[in-house]
Amino acid sequence: MLAEIDPETVTAFLQMYVFVLAGFVGYQVITRVPPLLHTPLMSATNAISGISLVGSLVIAGKGGDHLTSTILGFVAVTAAMINVVGGFMITDRMLKMFKRHEQKKP
Amino acid sequence: MKPTFLLQTLLLSADAAAGAATASTNAPRAVHWEYLTQVTYLAASVLFILGLKGLTNPAKARRGMQLAAIGMLVAVLGTLLHQQIVTYTWIITGMVLGSVIGAAISIWMPMTAVPQRTAISHAFGALAATMVGIAHFNDPGSETTLGSVEMTALGFEVLFGSLTITGSFMAFGKLQGFVPSQPITYKFQNASNIGLFVVAFFLFIYLIFNPDPEHGRFTATAFYLMALLGLAVGVLIVLPIGGADMPVVISLLNSYAGLASSATGFALQNNVLIIAGALDGASGFLLSILMSKAMNRSFANVLFGAFGGGDTTAAKAASTEGLTVNSISVDDAALQLAYARLVIVVPGYGMAVAQCQHQVRELAELIEKKGGEVKYAIHPVAGRMPGHMNVLLAEANVPYDRLYDMDDINGEFPRADVALIIGANDVVNPAARNDRSSPIYGMPILNADQAQRMIVLKRSMSRGFSNIENELFFNPKCSLLFGDAKSSLTQLVGAVKNV
Question: Inter-chain contact A22–B139, Cβ cutoff 8 Å?
Fold first, then answer.
């Protein structure tokens, strides 16, 4: 039976499992994030999805006669890196500002 | 290049140790590095989820995000070992350039510009995904042909990606002010937008059945045409959306950018990309549901409704005719605030525009010094993105345990001596509760009208974003303090000091 199935399709199904389960975990975790932190949440998920950087790295590094790939990869690396560095830094800058009342008293 | 070199040298010794285990393969060293890369990806996936989990508690949020950042670093280092990478020149140039731009934005950007930054960052994320998708199509690598399954992933990647690039850029433009934030509408707008999207979708279907550019004659044409249509749809779909609907739009684009990243993961068979994209997609989706609920509107209504356009308004103007508003002097307002036991501050987008969050905090501290208590009531869609008001007030050093969500504070308004409304309008309009004919009827609002008194800081009698009259302002318990919110607050601070 299994031998007749295209291996590419099998991989795709496994990937669907990963996607659906990750989406489910994400949904469960994020429903518990208080509205107070919704802005940092958005910049945090944005920074995290900057992981597409790892896809662009391979493309930008192919070298040789893959000139188009190198250019596209370079643009992608730059754009993803802006999100990764900017996203994590700004999330931290925002989270640093949230203080409880008690801590303010000298 | 040096750190990588160091790492590779380090790994060589690890390789030698583990060499015996998989001696049967042709290229044992490359295979081992691939395992290590996969381990870093697994670690990153776990750290990302832990990072987001940290955000469920404000006290642990920073540490959580630091974990996520470590996950990112590990995954990037793991990728740099990839055997297909032969030159680091462009990688390093891109990483340095991106880091400098990203760091510069995050250090010098004022907090009031957070919505714009978020919008443009979705564009960057989608741009990266789209570029990777096009490069993949152009040069699929070791496999000789693209299959239907791979093309399905690529199509999603490029279609969602291109749509999000321009859509987010338009949202950025509207928030930054170089694109008019009023809805731009024209005849047959929805029909033509849907038409364009349907054409792009059919091209996508064609591509799934003709995925190989070598054989399908129109495959390359269809692919690039689909990307162009995606770009066009992105612009056109955001044009008719007004400023106050931005919380929904930004959340939706957040979700799309995540889905594009996830599709990249499917195309590259990279699980950490699938997971991170799914987390981002789920988060954006959840936020857009919350925002839509807070406006009592459906996605379809936000995207195709062109709210705040001309057609909903005229009928409503009559109901408040003949009524008068009470304006109040700074000194009288200061007197009421100084002797209040409980003041509930209701901030809105106007506070962000006037950038007066610091003055708000100053006034609140004075009231507390006089023995009163100050709480802040935050409507989910106050401002231009989810959580906008919370971030601004946190920046002004307002402790976060004073910031209350709508459901937690609404019961307290009857007990409040003064509701101080700063630059908010539709979120306190009682018409949402009483007036069935109002376009905002059914939207959950803050019950500011139940407070003993209301003081509204307002520039003029102009209407809120929805362009409907707010009967709250004509309530006999309500007084208006006209003028720029920042200077009004500064004067109030001075006056309260002297009480």
Answer: no
